[in-house]
Amino acid sequence: MKRVNNLFVVIALVFTAACRPEPFDIDYSMILESYNLDFKEPSGLAYSTDKESLYIVSDRGMAYQVSFTGTTIMQLAYTGDDFEGIFVDASTSDIYICEEGKGDLVKLNESGIEQSTFNILDNPGNIGLEGLTYNSIDKEFYMLKERSDGLLIKYSTISQTKTKIKLNFALDYSGIYYSDISNTLWIVSDESKTLTQCTLDGTKIFSYQLPISGVEGIVVNEEETVAYVVSDPNNKLYKLDLTIK
């Protein structure tokens, strides 16, 4: 009787494997370069004002300016609890940071000194704000709520109102970048390991399967041929080829 039961188990496993959806084909060739970072838990990612360097925030409440090869140029004076997003305004040099646990959007000057704070989510804990980017045409910040009703959050600097849009194309949402060239958003998912280009209302246009775990920050070049992302568990900056589809 034991052999019969084992046979049923084998048949069940084979059937389950046959019915399981096929995963994305993972293309490691999309990784053009990878660079080690000398700080832990990198999260949000942004261009500098001149786009000659990058800014990266750490979950440990610190922010850094780094080169495109991952070398730290400086650390900002401002420190906090749990940074998950950053944006640098090219027109004013002001720096904006998202603090996940408090649900706050913090404005700093170019020296990293706090200027003001805007509450976006009320004390969401560790499932709060993720990612930060800005649309200078519509004067709107875009942020994400990671999971538990993953959301795209728009904050208008004109009306100081918030709009929340439910997202449904990934298991979670961990980083965001606005492209003023195509007027679209690029959103990465840590758990789904995807990079998705979508409309400003969160409708998916196209998704890449990423060959990297723990991706939490994203910027894209003007031609939309190259992306830079950071991985939290790997402590690395990656340069990716977006021409592979």
Describe this structure in words.
The protein is mainly β. It has a single domain, classed as TolB, C-terminal domain (Neuraminidase, 6 Propeller), CATH 2.120.10.30. It contains one helix and 20 strands. The strands form five sheets. It has a four-stranded antiparallel β-sheet with strand order 1-20-19-18, with no helix packed on it. The protein has a four-stranded antiparallel β-sheet with strand order 2-3-4-5, with no helix packed on it. The longest helix is centred in the first third of the chain and has 18 residues, at 2-19. It is globular, with a radius of gyration of 20 Å. The relative contact order is 0.16.
Concise overview:
By secondary structure, the chain is mainly beta.
List the helices and strands and how they pair.
Elements: H1 2-19, E1 31-36, E2 42-47, E3 54-58, E4 62-66, E5 72-75, E6 83-88, E7 95-99, E8 104-108, E9 114-119, E10 129-135, E11 140-145, E12 151-156, E13 162-166, E14 175-179, E15 184-189, E16 194-198, E17 204-209, E18 215-220, E19 226-231, E20 236-241
Antiparallel strand pairs: 1-20, 2-3, 3-4, 4-5, 6-7, 7-8, 8-9, 10-11, 11-12, 12-13, 14-15, 15-16, 16-17, 18-19, 19-20
Radius of gyration: 20 Å
Could you state the order of secondary-structure elements as H and E? HEEEEEEEEEEEEEEEEEEEE
Low-confidence stretches: 1-24
How much helicity do the residues have? under 10%
Q: Structural class, judged by helices and strands?
A: mainly beta
Instruction: Indicate the CATH class.
Output: Mainly Beta
Backbone shape? globular
CATH topology: Neuraminidase
Q: In the CATH classification, which architecture applies?
A: 6 Propeller
